[in-house]
Amino acid sequence: MAYQYDLFVIGAGSGGVRASRVAASKGYKVAVAEGSALGGTCVNIGCVPKKLFVYASEYGHGFGEAAGFGWTNEGTKFDWSVLRDNKTKEIERLNGIYGNMLGNAGVEVISGFASFVDAHTVMVNGKTYTAERILIAVGAKPFIPEFQGSDLVVSSNEMFYLDSLPSKALVVGGGYIAVEFAGILNGLSVDTSLAYRGDQLLRGFDEDVRAFASEEYKKSGIDVRLNTGVDRIELVDPEDQASERMVHFKDGTSERFGLILYATGRVPNVGSLELDKAGVEFGKNGAVKIDKNFKTTADSVFALGDVTDNIQLTPVAIKEAMALIDYWFDGKEVDFDYDNIPTAVFSQPAIGTVGLSEQEAEARGIDFRVYQTDFRAMKHTLSGATSRTLMKMLVNNADEKVIGAHMVGDYSGEIIQGLGIALKAGATKADFDATVGVHPTSAEEFVTFSAGALKERK
């Protein structure tokens, strides 16, 4: 059967754009459908604008710390509209770049949300398109549970376009999005509370990292409330949708907030795809089921990125796209290594991690040892801040390879990228020890761990 396209991609996010561009460069006739802005979540309502907001919020702390270095900063003020609008201009610039990249590669861009008609056919804006292969790369979306007053909260999507900043805000959630936005709001001088129903933030991270980061968030001025759940929310003035929100917590207390952000997880964005028409199966959380080669239960349909149950990170989706291209064009079976993927949380302080946590290593039955230290960074000897930095390294006793590295502190994301290369290459503790440190930096601690830093484990 003759098809209109060799490949039809649903979703122009990081993974979808990479797959469509490279496939087109190799001779495929490719179309990509996108119902929102080009670039997907990361570029438009995710990592890129969020990092810009993080930069802005860091100045809030920096001005206060500058006095110890001799700087005076009387009369400083912050204008939310300038940050918001400059961010939007930058995102629009990136949208244009993505459009040019796709166009230059010969990819046809179709504006609109696609849904399946069958395993080789999709519909966009009432028009059908056929393709030999279809790739699902629609990403994920914020999840807000239904409860009384859930319509009065915002998700991370709306945070980038607020008309104004509140004087007081509540962030609900304990994951990376929650702690990042709590840091942003706090740094922009918003009275910020962070409520999480569990007994510690950042589930899935190393336990020492979780505990250390939580205490540092408190030091920075965030009101961290653990074991705290929301019962219901209502308007203080029922006649005014813009009025403050009254939050009734499950412990019986109530409090007013100008803004409530729910950062309670993300779910695959499959609601309008009509996957059943293509014979594509998905799990209870909506994640599309795939085999190791990213093939779904329909032979002609593939999926990658956040819409699957794999790690939800932009660089992972891009790497998956390249692995899929190699499978299609070179017949290489996909052997994607999801271990040793460097990850950063751009909270304040930031977190960087690669490899196994102490708990994961224990669960795998590995015989290992731990080096760990925390210290006050040189900067803060004059800044007056009480912030501290945590560094942690796990070493496999069987072969001396470093199997985990974790950091909480300034520049963690930048530092952990280099360590990610070392772990991927199989570096040993001796390799780290033989590396000359860059002095004076925090990063040099990773190559100077001695027996004195050994952590006593139970």
TrEMBL record:
Chain ranges of the Pyridine nucleotide-disulphide oxidoreductase dimerisation domain: 341-448
A Pfam family per the record: Pyr_redox_dim
Residues that coordinate or bind FAD: 51, 306
Disulfide bridge positions per record: 42-47
Residues that bind NAD(+): 173-180, 265
FAD/NAD(P)-binding domain: residues covered: 5-321
GO molecular function: flavin adenine dinucleotide binding; glutathione-disulfide reductase (NADPH) activity
Cofactor(s) annotated in UniProt: FAD
Gene3D superfamilies: 3.30.390.30, FAD/NAD(P)-binding domain
Residues of the active site: 439 (proton acceptor)
Family: Belongs to the class-I pyridine nucleotide-disulfide oxidoreductase family.
Protein name according to UniProt: Glutathione reductase
Provenance organism: Marinomonas ushuaiensis DSM 15871
Organism phylogeny: Bacteria, Pseudomonadati, Pseudomonadota, Gammaproteobacteria, Oceanospirillales
